[in-house]
């Protein structure tokens, strides 16, 4: 279920069946070089494709949160505190599995401080998510992530 009115209405009626939330984590700033801005943008597009495809696979069991956006220049410990508050709010609503998705490798280094499960997706050298190479890469990653999510549920 996505963060749109129709899906949220469905969620509120079936909360007891929704035990997982996916939170995409996106860096966002205009205060970088043009090349870095392009890289952040394509990573954001790629993550959006991932999230939407995974949500479709597990509709009714997973809630796709709005993106958690942060400045790449922000204090990471402050961002961890802020993100952990989001997670606490979700858990207070009965969510058992909080999955955090990012293409930013700096979060991998801070993973132990997060109260959710971090899924780092290497972005690779994709210039356009429309290219055939990108589509193959994305589908391969989606398949692996689906297996990972299923494994989280079996623990």
Given this structure, which CATH class is correct?
Answer: Alpha Beta
Sum up the overall morphology in one term: globular
Mean pLDDT, to the nearest integer, reads: 89
Number of strands: 5
Main sheet properties = 5 strands, parallel
Oligomer class: single chain
**In total, how many domains does the architecture comprise?**
1
Order of helices and strands: HEHEEHEHEH
User: Compute the gyration radius: what is it?
Assistant: 16 Å
What distance lies between the first and last C-alpha atoms, to the nearest angstrom? 23 Å
Low-confidence stretches: none
Q: In percent, how helical is the residue content?
A: 40-55%
Beta-strand proportion: 15-25%
Instruction: Determine the number of helices (DSSP H or I, runs of at least 4 residues).
Output: 5
CATH architecture annotation: 3-Layer(aba) Sandwich
**Class by SSE composition:** alpha/beta
CATH topology: Rossmann fold
Pick out its properties.
155 residues, alpha/beta, Rossmann fold, 5-stranded parallel sheet, 50% helix, globular
Secondary-structure map:
Elements: H1 5-13, E1 20-27, H2 34-57, E2 62-64, E3 68-70, H3 76-92, E4 97-102, H4 106-109, E5 117-120, H5 132-154
Parallel strand pairs: 1-2, 1-3, 1-4, 4-5
Describe this structure in words.
It comes from Pontibacillus salicampi. This is DUF2487 family protein. Pfam families: DUF2487. The model has no long low-confidence stretch (mean pLDDT 89). The chain has helices at 5-13, 34-57, 76-92, 106-109, 132-154; strands spanning 20-27, 62-64, 68-70, 97-102, 117-120. With 155 residues, the protein is of the alpha/beta class. The two termini are 23 Å apart. The longest helix is centred in the first third of the chain and has 24 residues, at 34-57. Helix 2 packs across helix 5. Helix 2 (34-57) links the parallel strand 1 (20-27) and strand 2. The protein has one domain: Rossmann fold (3-Layer(aba) Sandwich), CATH 3.40.50. Strands 1, 2, 3, 4 and 5 form a five-stranded parallel β-sheet that branches.
């Amino acid at each position: 279920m996505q963060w749109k009115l129709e899906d949220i209405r469905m969620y509120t009626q079936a909360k007891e069946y929704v035990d997982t939330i996916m939170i995409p984590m996106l860096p966002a700033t205009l205060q970088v070089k043009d090349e870095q801005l392009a890289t952040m943008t394509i990573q954001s597009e790629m993550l959006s494709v991932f999230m939407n495809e995974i949500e479709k696979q597990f509709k009714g069991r997973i809630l796709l949160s709005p993106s958690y956006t942060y400045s790449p220049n922000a204090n990471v410990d402050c961002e961890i505190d802020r993100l952990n508050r989001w997670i606490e709010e979700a858990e207070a609503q009965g969510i058992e599995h909080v999955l955090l998705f990012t293409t930013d490798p700096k979060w991998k280094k801070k993973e132990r401080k997060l109260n959710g499960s971090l899924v780092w997706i290497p972005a690779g050298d994709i210039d356009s998510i429309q290219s055939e190479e990108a589509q193959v890469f994305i589908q391969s990653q989606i398949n692996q992530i689906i297996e990972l999510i299923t494994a989280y549920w079996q623990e």
